[in-house]
Amino acid sequence: PAATQAEPVFVSPVSPIPFDRPGLPLNTGRSETALAWVDLAIEAAQKWSPDAQFLGIQPSYVMERNLPFMPSAAGWFYSFGRPQDVLQYYVQVVDGRVTGSVEAEAIGERPKPQPVDVNAVVLDSDDALQVYLNSLSGAAPSEANIDYSLAVDPDLGKAIWWIYNLEESDQKPVLAVDAATGQVLAME
């Protein structure tokens, strides 16, 4: 039914509605690289569950869309899971300080994410960015529009950095980089 003047339309803050940039500048709250603060996030996650497993880093622009509260800076969003269920725990770190956390469970059937072995990740976010910048033939994009995710690719069985350039697309990454070797991977 159509909304009337007496019945305002409710728009859920977590619904997949279209999202126009600009949101938070993605270089805010990132005075250090993503892996510089992973230990802070792990410590926070272990308070949530002693058997928390590090699942990777989520793009801040995606988390900004999905959170019921508005973060004050992009920072880094670390995700964790537990072996016994599909519940995930997200910890945001902004400029070296844990600023928030939230539990969430994906809707629908999805493969369970595999834990990331931090010790096997050789490239940090700045290294992955440099690989992306080296691949460009034109001008470098603004870092306020660059985002990252780190996750184990289930087909390859290894951690991959995914680079997003929101000047080009907010749906697909622009580059995939092996987090151990720096090799650029073909994207399908």
Features:
single chain, 188 residues, alpha+beta, 4-stranded antiparallel sheet, globular
Stretches where pLDDT is under 50 for at least 5 consecutive residues are 1-19
Shape: globular
What class do helices, strands and sheet pairing give? Answer: alpha+beta
Order of helices and strands: HEHEEEHEEEE
* Estimated helix fraction: 10-25%
Rg measurement, Å: 17 Å
Our estimate of the beta-strand percent is: 25-35%
- Largest sheet descriptor: 4 strands, antiparallel
Strand order of the largest sheet: 1-2-3-4
Number of strands: 8
What's the pLDDT, averaged over the residues?
A: 87
Query: Could you tell me how far the N terminus lies from the C terminus, measured between alpha carbons in angstroms?
Result: 40 Å
- Number of helical runs? 3
Please describe what this structure looks like.
- The protein has 188 residues and is of the alpha+beta class.
- 15% of the residues lie in helices and 26% in strands.
- The protein has three helices and eight strands.
- The strands form two sheets. It has a four-stranded antiparallel β-sheet with strand order 1-2-3-4. It has a four-stranded antiparallel β-sheet with strand order 5-6-7-8, with helices on one face.
- Strand 7 and strand 8 form a beta hairpin.
- The chain is globular and about 45 Å long.
- 30% of the residues are buried.
